[in-house]
């Protein structure tokens, strides 16, 4: 089995680690296939209630492995397109799933690495992290969902600034722009990301997952479709034992509060 991406599933938490630190976790053909396979496994396993995505070494992901891509130059455009489509299968699995994902990010995030990072629904970044496009610098165009996921996160104008002006963001700017959710010291990134995943896992796990799905799915649908999906989803959740226990506890607490205030 490949070790370019590590996977451990324990007690409902899937821990995925990008593991090519010597290449700054840049994605080559083999790693792309591994990404697709890991995504399929973790998002189809009903026992998985949260996913923690992180990376080994000094950087989260430097994007595509340009050296490996250049070695495939004789294969032409079809080989690169094929590689992108394989990775995209994994991106679709993660983004369209009802499993919430938290990413622990350190060091550089560049090019397609932005797309992999933005598969996560909550991003904890080290205070030393940096984010940059770099596509146009080597004559390439955005891939791995960057042209969709980046403007969804930070807005079209700011996405254009990153893609067309090669604007590099430090961690504070990334948080201000909405690219990441929070910043912590580098030594605390792993623990904080795991805390987020544990919060999902210990709470109303299905409800968190469905909230993620509704937000992600809403991007490509009409408002009327989103409203209908919301109505169906909340009705289905209301009927579950998990929700009923929590609703009754909430109602009891509200009743006690009312008596205290009377």
UniProtKB/TrEMBL annotation:
Quote the Pfam families the UniProt record gives: ECH_1
> Which PROSITE patterns does its entry note?
ENOYL_COA_HYDRATASE (PS00166)
Q: Organism's domain of life?
A: Bacteria
**SUPFAM superfamilies recorded:** ClpP/crotonase (SSF52096)
PANTHER family assigned: ENOYL-COA HYDRATASE, POLYKETIDE BIOSYNTHESIS ENOYL-COA HYDRATASE PKSH-RELATED
Stated family: Belongs to the enoyl-CoA hydratase/isomerase family.
- Name-wise, this protein is Enoyl-CoA hydratase/isomerase family protein
């Amino acid at each position: 089995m490949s070790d370019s991406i590590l996977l451990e599933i324990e007690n409902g938490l899937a821990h995925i680690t990008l593991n090519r630190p010597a290449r700054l976790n840049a994605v080559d053909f083999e790693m792309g296939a591994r990404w697709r396979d890991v995504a399929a496994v973790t998002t189809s396993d009903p026992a998985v209630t949260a996913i923690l995505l992180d990376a080994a070494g000094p950087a989260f992901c430097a994007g595509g492995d340009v050296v490996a891509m250049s070695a495939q130059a004789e294969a032409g455009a079809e080989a690169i397109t094929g590689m992108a489509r394989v990775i995209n299968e994994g991106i679709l699995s993660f983004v369209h799933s009802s499993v919430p994902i938290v990413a622990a990010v350190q060091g550089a995030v560049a090019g397609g690495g932005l797309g992999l990072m933005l598969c996560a629904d909550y991003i904890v970044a080290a205070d030393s992290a940096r984010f940059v496009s770099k596509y146009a610098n080597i004559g390439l165009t955005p891939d791995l969902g960057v042209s969709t996921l980046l403007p969804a996160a930070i807005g079209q104008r700011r996405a254009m600034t990153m893609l067309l002006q090669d604007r590099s963001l430090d961690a504070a700017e990334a948080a201000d722009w909405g690219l990441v959710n929070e910043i912590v010291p580098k030594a605390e990134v792993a623990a904080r990301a795991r805390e987020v995943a544990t919060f999902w896992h210990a709470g109303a796990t299905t409800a968190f997952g469905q909230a993620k799905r509704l937000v992600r799915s809403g991007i490509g649908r009409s408002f009327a479709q989103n409203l209908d999906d919301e109505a169906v989803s909340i009705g289905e959740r209301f009927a579950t034992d998990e929700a009923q226990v929590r609703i009754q506890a909430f109602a009891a607490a509200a009743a006690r509060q009312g008596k205290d205030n009377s």
